[in-house]
């Protein structure tokens, strides 16, 4: 161990110099996936970082094992590289362990949202081989609290997902978005060539916001996207080869998502979207729940084309009696349910009713979203004649609004509606003033 300490001190000096010239190598690890690596044996100091940030209160557990390396020291630190002989949130030492039973586990809890870094110090005292095999596995578990973490319901992105915002040089994190920001979204123009039209449109409402909630998300890694897409299980994502978006929980490794190069899109443009194959789907706990709404019902997150809506009751398609598929939930929510909301809030925002977007303190949902979930659950419990009647009634009442929107007459109708509402408001105020004067 004296030799190990001496070599480590030499390494610290080299790191101080190497950090300036960028010579220090840090290998990325995927949380929940075992990594088979080679370590030097004279001794060696190896640094790793988990591929995603860890939510505050979450626990990172790393295990290393080898049948060859005798002395192993494992250290974990959040936010910066650990020092097994100095600053670290967890240090575990196997020095003196017998060959054949050499493994160690280190566990640390994040005090704030930050990246976990791991250090492995290896010293082979039994052989003179140039390098030996080593297995390392790091996992992240939910924070310990009096309440259970959300298991992924609703249409949400984690707070660290990024989107492109007009007039911003760099991508903006989901947690920093505001109503009124113009974000990059897309609309498919042809199904044959997967051609999309990208444009910036304003966020007209936030369907769900919970800044401090910790939630279990799906972490979807792809071949070409620089960062994984982290979404709730029921969130709808556009999949190659399907006409409608599917719930994230129904995706599988090998499926292809639509990817756009956000570095080459400046203003409105039509381009052929590339696809990227899913390489891994895991779970992760992240802080924050965010669900922005755009006029076209889509948004580009971490370069991946996604819907802004959710699969109701875990289904991609709207069904009668759970057997007869009618339409996709994306189509129903966007074309019918959201039509009057868009009429009030997008085409004439001055009359957008604030009470509809007041958040439920218990769930974080906007009132119109919570009402939609409750209505869908109630209709789901009814028999087929009732379900069919309600569907026809919805199409009769809301269908004309959707048709007017498609014909480009939505703005005219909204202006007429706005003028009527404003006139009625003025008349009401005038009548109240007259009554007070009379008194």
Automatic annotation (TrEMBL):
Residue ranges of every copy of the Hedgehog protein Hint domain listed in the record: 153-317
Pfam families linked: Hint (PF01079)
Stretches that traverse the bilayer: 384-404
Signal keyword on record: yes
Keyword flag rRNA-binding: no
GO biological process assignments: protein autoprocessing
Annotated keywords: Membrane, Signal, Transmembrane, Transmembrane helix
Signal peptide start-end: 1-18
Protein name as it appears in the record: Intercellular signal essential for a variety of patterning events during development By similarity
